[in-house]
Automatic annotation (TrEMBL):
This is DNA-directed DNA polymerase. InterPro entries: DNA_Rep/Repair_Clamp_Loader, P-loop_NTPase. Its EC number is 2.7.7.7. It catalyses: DNA(n) + a 2'-deoxyribonucleoside 5'-triphosphate = DNA(n+1) + diphosphate. One of its GO terms (biological process) is DNA-templated DNA replication. Keywords: DNA-directed DNA polymerase, Nucleotidyltransferase, Transferase. It holds the Pfam family DNA_pol3_delta2. GO terms for molecular function: DNA-directed DNA polymerase activity.
Amino acid sequence: MLQICREKQVQLSRQYQDNTLAHAVIIQGIEGSGQNALAKWLIELLICQSPLSLTHPHESEAVSEACGQCKACLLNKADNYPDHLLLLADNKMLGVDDIRRGNAFLEKTAQLGTVKTILIPQAQIMTVAAANALLKTLEEPTENSYIVLITDDLDSLLPTIVSRCALYVIRPVIGDALLSQLDVSNSDDALDSTGSMVSNTITNYVNLSQLPELTDKAVYEEFQAFNKSYLDYLFNGQSEDNLLSQIVASKHSLRWLEKITCNILREYYLDNAIEQSSLIVQQQMSVHVFNQIYQAIITSNKLIKSYQQANRQFVGEQLLMTINNIVRPSI
Ligand SMILES: [Zn+2]
């Protein structure tokens, strides 16, 4: 069981308490990053009639929680709460009729509570028509309603939708945070002598079945070529032109850079617990260097996502220069 991203919980709790929570929220996180758990927690909190505010030891900020006891909480637990709607896709696609069902739901007066909530898991599988119908709702929000969208791929949502929602991006944990999560899971599940618990944990993080490189053969091949260029650039200082043109050409490239780097770091932290065989150790690189690279990639990724007009060529060139200075400071 993965923990809910504490940082986002604290942030959302504060907004909930100050009444500044946005009426439309996107939670973005790769499969296994706790994105569903965060959305579930938020919906339960919005539904609850007498929420609690809890401050854990060693923490200064309180987190709000549903009480779990009130009428609304009990009905919700029984999947019988009338003022919440879950918009799940059939046929692997969320169509315009689904969104219209959501709009009709929002137009009715709340039956029991004071707010109405809609949860849309897998928002990335909305059709263009559905996305446009949703856009209308987001432009003219109804009173006391909250829409929570979950996605693993922000790039496949219309930018106009993203710009009308408050965005919460859950980044996979790395480093010490990952190790402490492992400690938590190890205390629940026995670790066998082959370290298979650790493998299970890796599986949790890399179960990215929604991602296009795992479902589309052409994208997969593109990803493999990209991976090769990136590693060649990192470890050998070669393939720079190749890598830059791949960064410019693929809309997935910044996410891929983040993913590959993150996986290398995970491998390092996880393997270190067993034996020194990770790529970082093999290449005799410092994990500190890798953490710096990861930060540089996240910064570029944010830049690309926050400005639709951001020039990929420019961002890519700057990023490669930064990585080069981190890896080979003397050159
Ligand atoms: Zn309650």
